[in-house]
Amino acid sequence: MKYFIPFLLLAGFVFAQDPQPETKEQPKAEQLPAKAANPVVIMKTSMGDIEIELFADECPKTVANFVGLAEGTKEWTDPKSGETVKKPFYDGRIFHRVIDKFMIQGGCPIGTGSGSPVKKFEDEINAKALGLDKLKAVQNGAPHPYLLIRSQQQWQAQVIMPLIKSMGIKSDDEFKQRQEEANKKLLELTLLLAYETLGYKYHDSRSSHAPKRGVLAMANSGPNTNGSQFFINVVDTPHLTGKHTVFGEVKNGMEIVDAISKTKVGAGAKPVEDVKIISVRLKKSDA
């Protein structure tokens, strides 16, 4: 049945225009002390080396996927031949999307940002550890900046309709009867619950890192769509909290990340001259 649902609590709303909103309210991550067992990889690029610690305890599946692809121990599908292969995947790939004062992104098998050589897998995020259960979707009479709502249509599609669906409302008449209840739920709606209605699934068993400058995170096209693509933050991106699995952090070579982020780009934020990943390998123990 087609819905003709009036806007809820829209009076006076100001919709976000900036895709990277700034806010003084920062999510507080419950970070456990780093363990010596965390693996470290060296990402060699055409502009220099980047040393990255991986959060194996927090994101075991994500780290295993990344290391397996990097070392060539995980099978993946070659986009050119269609064959299943087992060799280092990241060698020779490019950073296909580079945005100054934001992030650098790589790991696409075809260099466009639209490919993945492996089956998509779920996120590994503890939303409560990141404070999303404390932040309200409606803040000071407007959508929370992290939602990146820019229009009434987005508000309806990303918040109102998923909320109504989660309440089990199936008709216009039922909505009219329960509109007061829906308004109440909207005022009580946290970012955690809002994201869950969009399909994100969280776990509480492990800690999580916030998407700050220098972190390594999975690029995706929505909830639970991780594959081979990743990005490294050049700045803090609090609006990405809970939407991307953060599974590592640059320990050495952040100046290389910064330099890559300032590379001249063309259409689609793709560097005019290729910035290549030469290899990604586990760092050998000094012992």
Short description:
The chain is α+β, with helices and mostly antiparallel strands.
Folded structure, characterized:
The chain has 287 residues and is α+β, with helices and mostly antiparallel strands. 20% of the residues lie in helices and 18% in strands. An eight-stranded antiparallel sheet has the order 5-6-10-9-11-2-1-12. A two-stranded antiparallel sheet has the order 3-4. Strands 7-8 form a two-stranded antiparallel sheet. Strand 5 and strand 6 (103-106) form a beta hairpin. The model is unreliable at 1-7 and 9-24 (pLDDT under 50).
Low-confidence runs of at least 5 consecutive residues: 1-7, 9-24
Question: How many strands, what sense, and barrel or not for the largest sheet?
Answer: 8 strands, antiparallel
Q: How many E strands?
A: 12
Mean pLDDT: 89
Distance between the termini: 66 Å
Large-scale geometry? elongated
Beta-strand content: 15-25%
H/E topology pattern: EEHEEEEEEHHHHEEEHE
Give me the secondary-structure category: alpha+beta
List the total number of helices: 6
Ordered list of secondary-structure elements with their pairings:
Elements: E1 40-45, E2 48-54, H1 60-71, E3 76-77, E4 84-85, E5 95-99, E6 103-106, E7 138-139, E8 142-143, H2 152-166, H3 172-177, H4 179-188, H5 191-197, E9 215-218, E10 230-233, E11 246-252, H6 254-261, E12 277-282
Antiparallel strand pairs: 1-2, 1-12, 2-11, 3-4, 5-6, 6-10, 7-8, 9-10, 9-11
Spell out the key features of this protein.
alpha+beta, two-stranded antiparallel sheet, 20% helix, 8-stranded antiparallel sheet, 287 residues, 6 helices, single chain
